[in-house]
From TrEMBL:
Originating organism: Neopipo cinnamomea
One Gene Ontology cellular component: dendrite
Residues annotated for S-adenosyl-L-methionine binding in this entry: 61, 91, 109, 136-139, 160
Pfam families found in the cross-reference section: Methyltransf_3 (PF01596)
Protein origin, superkingdom: Eukaryota
Name the record gives this protein: catechol O-methyltransferase
Enzyme class: transferase
EC number: 2.1.1.6
Protein family according to the UniProt entry: Belongs to the class I-like SAM-binding methyltransferase superfamily. Cation-dependent O-methyltransferase family.
GO molecular function: catechol O-methyltransferase activity; magnesium ion binding
Family matches, as PROSITE patterns: SAM_OMT_I (PS51682)
Cofactor(s) listed: Mg(2+)
Coiled-coil intervals, chain numbering: none
Binding locations of Mg(2+): 160, 188-189
Amino acid sequence: GTAALIWNEIIREKVMNFIMNQSKEQRILNFVLQNAVRGDPRSVVDTIDKYCSQREWAMNVGNEKGLILDKTVEEVNPSVALELGSYCGYSAVRIARLLKAGARLLTVEFNPQFAAIARQMIEFAGVQDKVKLLEGPSQEIIPQLKKKYEVDTLDFVFLDHWKDRYTPDTILLQECNLLRKGSVLLADNVIFPGAPDFLTYVRKSPHFQCTNYPSHLEYMQVEDAVEKAVFLG
């Protein structure tokens, strides 16, 4: 079943890390540097999808859920967007390529190795003028957004970091007055690995209007979903 699939991928990754003396994330970046078109965000996204569907599974949002992400970004047309969890920079590049002139994306990554990869990915895709990568824990960075990063309110937030941070960080965004009426939150992996407390929180809150988009786990036929929560003020 699902557990066996994931377990096999973990074992394979450990073996490759050992043999090649580099991380999977480094291999993804190298594959992009060698095969994608510099300065072409679509090419970077497609190349990562190709690597992860054919060679090694990775926790990007992937193409199926990526289309839901694209559609949401296009509908919101944000001036200021926030991503929690940069990982390899896949979704940052995916979001940035849809941003209008003058719009910006702040992407937060806790893991320094992932942040280093994401920085290079963003730069190679040519979207570094639209994307600012902030390194550190989300619970420290969110309260700094207004003063340090001159954010008034966020038009769009993509949650794709630690699943147990979804709820506290959503509460933090509310407490820091970073959401306005109409701000849209989009949360990945709400079914697998799952964020049940987040779903309960936003669905029961009078401040959010929710829509669920059933989908599949990136690069696998495992059921997953993306949750959209519109802030009502």
